[in-house]
Amino acid sequence: MSSDTNEDLRLQALRRYDILDTAPEETFDRITRIVAAALRVPMAAVSLVDDHRQWFKSQIGLAATETPRSSSFCAHTILANGAMVVTDTTQDLRFNGNPLVLGDPHIRFYAGYPVVSSDGVPLGAVCAIDTSPRDISQQELGLLKDLAALVNEQLELRLLASIDGLTGALRRKTFLNMCERELLLGRRGKTPSSCLMIDADHFKAINDQYGHDVGDQVLKALVATFKAGLRATDIVGRLGGEEFGIFLPSTDLAGCVEVAERLRGMVESLEITTANVSVTVSIGAAEAAATGEDILGLLHRADTALLKAKRTGRNRIITECDSETPCCGSSAGFFTPSRSLVG
């Protein structure tokens, strides 16, 4: 596997936790206070290494909330199998020309231990920093290791709180937050974004006829099917009982419809064998406006198309363009699915 592929997977794992650019939290601040007090250093941080920056979830003694990745010590730590220690930065060829060594905060000592995901992917580090060269004991390194494990536990708890316990899709609030961030990134990079609103057809009848246990199986099977037909970068959320949202970065309306048709066909082929139940879905599709629109506006347009799909026969895909009004997407123009696309 190439280093670029490994880095893409690492960034996907980091974004799964939906923690970048979030507000300070006492749980993480407590960890940096322990590092500063136990190792007797003026600076400590819990850092996460993004694609172009090092961002601090918590920091003591550091004025910045982020630094360029190119000058980040923790970007080196995530490549290590364990602790990384630099006892004197002025004597280390990797760092003696680093702007954080030559200028504020004049780093002379650094010790960090990687923070990893539950599947072992490095995300960032817990680190101790001093303005004077010094050594570190094995006991102190053991403390950094334990605190890095605590950061991982807190990340996993946050993740559990953000995931629907039945289906494994994101809960509504987390879904909206992640989509809003991806929408802004796409707009900044001038790449299209699209979304789908999906509703399980006649789901109440399934519950009434077969019971809620079978209904739960249907919902779990739907999300598993969605994920099997999507990229790792696509975002799936459960927004209501049997209603789901899917955000598709770097996808225009035509591509969005292609994804929707693939998912519709995969669902149509599903069979819940324990009760011999089949299920279909209705789908509304919309492309993000080039400027100004937030995620709620985009989802509302897709939801309007979804309602039309349900009213005109179900098991079909309707786009915002099918109403004979101009699409808001920057690249789609007018788009009406062919018969094969609408079921």
Task: Report what the structure shows.
With 343 residues, this protein is α+β, with helices and mostly antiparallel strands. The chain is built from 10 helices and 11 strands. The chain has a 6-stranded antiparallel sheet with strand order 3-2-1-6-5-4. A 5-stranded mixed sheet has the order 8-9-7-10-11, with helices on both faces. A hairpin with a 5-residue loop joins strand 5 and strand 6 (122-130). Helix 2 packs antiparallel against helix 5 and helix 7 crosses helix 8 (212-228).
Index terms:
alpha+beta; five-stranded mixed sheet; 343 residues; six-stranded antiparallel sheet
Could you write a compact summary of the structure shown?
This protein has 343 residues and is of the alpha+beta class. It has ten helices and eleven strands.
List the helices and strands and how they pair.
Layout: H1 3-16, H2 26-39, E1 43-49, E2 53-60, E3 66-68, H3 74-77, E4 84-86, H4 99-102, E5 109-116, E6 122-130, H5 138-162, H6 172-188, E7 193-200, H7 203-210, H8 212-228, E8 235-238, E9 243-249, H9 253-268, E10 281-287, H10 295-311, E11 317-319
Parallel strand pairs: 10-11
Antiparallel strand pairs: 1-2, 1-6, 2-3, 4-5, 5-6, 7-9, 7-10, 8-9
Helix pairs in contact: 2-5, 7-8
How does the helix and strand content classify structurally? alpha+beta
Beta-strand residue fraction: 15-25%
Helix proportion range = 25-40%
Query: In order across it, which strands form the biggest sheet?
Result: 3-2-1-6-5-4
Described by strand count, sense and barrel closure, the largest sheet is: 6 strands, antiparallel
What is the tally of beta strands? 11
Mean pLDDT: 90
Outline type? elongated
Q: Report the C-alpha radius of gyration, rounded.
A: 24 Å
Order of helices and strands: HHEEEHEHEEHHEHHEEHEHE
Please report the distance between the alpha carbons of the first and last residues.
39 Å
Number of helices: 10
Low-confidence stretches: 323-343
